[in-house]
Design a protein that fits this description.
alpha+beta; 2 domains; three-stranded antiparallel beta sheet; 2 helices; 3 strands; extended
């Protein structure tokens, strides 16, 4: 992503009225659509479905459908974020809050 795009996203995140939803479980499934064109060639299309659940109420709170490319980017972003979080949790120092950098948001690039 270009720097201006990231700055715009950061600004919008800081000023959003969207409230976070908390989920303690997730269901991940995929759907596959197959078809044939006029020449008989088979084409396939797939999507990944993320269903976030609140297990206290045992209800889904959000369902998000993403493309395979976005799903792969999400896997990479989650892996990087979890490595950083594990490091921060193991660190015994209490650090002063810092201004968020582009890399702190785990954007899929």
């Amino acid at each position: 992503m270009e720097n201006q795009t990231i700055k715009n996203i950061q600004h919008n995140l800081a000023n959003t009225s969207v409230r976070p939803l908390y989920a303690d479980e997730i269901v991940v499934v995929h759907t596959l659509k197959t078809g044939k064109d006029d020449k008989g060639k088979v084409t396939k299309e797939g999507h990944v479905h993320l269903v976030f659940l609140d297990m206290t109420t045992q209800r889904p709170i959000e369902k998000i459908v993403i493309s395979p490319i976005t799903a792969k980017g999400l896997v990479n972003a989650l892996n990087e974020t979890m490595k950083k979080l594990d490091t921060d949790l193991k660190n015994k120092k209490v650090e002063k809050p810092k201004k968020a950098a582009d890399s702190d948001y785990g954007y899929i690039r």
